[in-house]
Amino acid sequence: MKKLMPMLALFLSFCMLCAPVAQAETLKSLRGTEAVKGDAPSENYRWEKDRKPLPRQFVQQPPLIPHTTKGYLITKEFNKCLDCHSWDRTADTGATKVSITHFKTRGGTELTNISPRRYFCQQCHVPQTDAKPLVGNTFKPADGLVK
């Protein structure tokens, strides 16, 4: 038995080396089959004008931003969005208040300021646009949101 195990291991190793190597599939993305040369700088995109917010498409969808955010600075020391959307500024600006959910920790404890996990607005909120979908789909808005 002691001699059989090394022989079996040697045989299996030999079989693996002799097995035909599978050809790698050619990857194809929305950009085609060419290798990605890097993302286009954001200046190549058209910024939308301010307008009425688009309706939400599913329950719990973060609202889309109905105005440009070009040049908005959001760092750990400063958040440009809060110049208009903080609770003490909305009466002056007419902007929508930051949701009360943004003042809660993951465990549900209410804070006196925006939760660090909700501070960087553009993690969830994006400027709205009328861009055509990159790929076809059959998505339909949630029944409760259809007018």
The gyration radius over C-alpha positions equals: 26 Å
The major sheet is characterized as: none
Summed over residues and divided by their number, the pLDDT gives a mean of 81
Would you identify the regions where 5 or more consecutive residues have pLDDT less than 50? none
Count of separate DSSP helical elements: 3
Strand content: under 5%
Form type: elongated
Class per helix and strand makeup: mainly alpha
- Topology pattern, helix = H, strand = E: HHH
Q: How many extended strands?
A: 0
What is the percent of helical residues? 10-25%
Termini gap: 76 Å
Give the topology, please.
Layout: H1 4-18, H2 82-85, H3 90-93
Structure description:
The chain has helices spanning 4-18, 82-85, 90-93. By secondary structure, it is mainly α. The longest helix has 15 residues, at 4-18.
Descriptive key words:
0% strand; single chain; 147 residues; mainly alpha; 3 helices
In brief:
The protein is mainly alpha-helical. 16% of the residues lie in helices and 0% in strands.
